[in-house]
């Protein structure tokens, strides 16, 4: 991020690149689009942060984002392009610029992005459960309940946000 700030001083507002983690919601809201050219995006939590800020996405049609981004109709909240291909990305960025230039179309896109935001606590609980499953597999692989890494794994904590059943 320091290199980006040095290369593009007029476009990089953060005085301290590490402040993104403190001010990320403001960065997401201030962005015109969230661009995610990932080759693999299993759950797309960064995309969810952009949507929660009402920022439309331009992202590769891969993983979890493929099902989260609608690129047509009234629920259109961004643009999808074929992962791993530069020309579809460039065409999507050109389309994003055209949408941004049309104030009404861009306002509708931002409204749809905000409306499509979801509570990611279910995703967090699912990842926690999967990590616990993998942890149990490591114990079995190590034999005798020990860890294959030569040290014991700490006991797992309850997932954050989970209420009593």
Automatic annotation (TrEMBL):
Designated name of the protein: Glycosyl transferase family 1 domain-containing protein
Cellular localisation: Plastid, Amyloplast
Keywords, comma-separated and alphabetical: Amyloplast, Plastid
Domain of life: Eukaryota
Xref: SUPFAM superfamilies: UDP-Glycosyltransferase/glycogen phosphorylase
